[in-house]
Amino acid sequence: MGRRSGRYEMAAGAPASGPGSDAICNFVICNDSSLRSQPIIFNPDFFVEKLRHEKPEVFTELVVSNITRLIDLPGAELAQLMGEEDPKLPGTNSTAAGFFRSLMSLKRKEKGVVFGSPLTEEGIAQVSQLIEYLHKNLRAEGLFRVPGNSIRQQILKDALNSGTDIDLDSGEFHSNDVATLLKMFLGELPEPLLTHKHFHAHLKIADLTLFDEKGNKTSTPDKERQIEALQLLFLILPAPNRSLLKLLLDLLYQTAKKQDKNKMSAHNLALMFAPHILWPRNVTANDLQENITKLNNGVTFMIKHSQKLFKAPVYIRECARLHYLGSRAHTSKDDLDLLTSSGSKELQPLKSQKRSRLDSCHQEETQQRTEEALKELFRHVHNMPDSAKKKKLIRQFNKHPTALTPGSDVPTSPAPRRTRSRSFSGLIKRKVLGTPVILERKSRDTTPEPVRVSKENVQLLQKCGSPAHMSQAKLKSLEGQKEESCRRMRARLLSKDSSSL
User: Fold this and answer.
1) What's the pLDDT tens digit per position in 106-119?
2) Integer Cα distance of 402 and 474 in angstroms
3) Apex 75 CA angle, 74 and 80, nearest 5
């Protein structure tokens, strides 16, 4: 069979999977037209699982830092949650508890492959047969409360321990037998399904309540914070515990939905399973005292909200994604909120800088176009035949050499200026009347003559384009400079006349 004759083919460039391959997954192209319309399944927790598998220490620190943001854990309890210290559980120092522990150890002395052994993937595969069967028989009244037949349970237990195939649909076993055996499996685990390390954290989560307007705690549970805390706590469970817990809570959730048939509500199911999945091993109800209500209510809450508890919070997903994309990994939800709020503030100076750069570039382009237009205008005037009109235009260019830059390209000789003779009568007037006469005459001489532009010149300028009109601003600036020079000359003359008198 050729490469393209099958239904699927490996994408080009995808690494081949093998014993020495480090690839997580391969890209597969579907050649079957009937399957191309199927939706593509994407796991939003892909980077979360990748980070947990490849860098467990970084992942645990990330999750625990967010757990401590929601619940208050003292140093000893935090060290127990991190696995740095052995958990200190209630009733572990009493003599009764010691006797109870020895009794339970005798019951688990003969360990099999599944029952009484630490939780493994093989054990979960065997127990999942029981869970799958119970999903089909949820209408049995008193399910998980009514005990089954002990003889049938022992036969089924031996079959699971030996790893033999079991046909639960043959009718040999009753649903109560299977339900009781599932509870037995959970009760014989060396530690509860939710582990001893998490015991104190679950007690603190049960105490999360809402606050009133004055900031005082109320008796109403804070469901959102409890769900978020449980999501984080379930993320740091061992992988086998997390897998079996998800299967179990989903089964109990579906059982509670049919409580009108089986008479088993979420609270009733919690009373049946809390001692097996949450209570510490080898303790009695007297050791737990007032914590029994908290623990039972906690399991009830897990059953009711089980469909939300196995999704990583959004900020944990984002942290894991940024970790693998090479960006800065944020350590908490507050950091992500701070980043989103400060991101817009950081963009504001960048936007203003870009705006100023664009304005400066625009001004430079406008000035360059104006100079080019003036040069073209000057060349047009210079190539005109000799006439009075040409002379007038050239004089206008020569009067403002700094404003009309093309004057430097084609040099023209300025018209000679006529000098006035100083008469004797003028000297007498200056001596008699003083400096005001001189100042008036100076001011009259220094005032610039108005630029006379004929109708033909205006039409010529209009033909050359609008950039030529922008030279008026430069003309005004030159007039201002001349007025400033006149003021300085007047001040110098006043000082000379006062010294001569």
Assistant:
1) 444 445 578 999 99
2) 8
3) 100
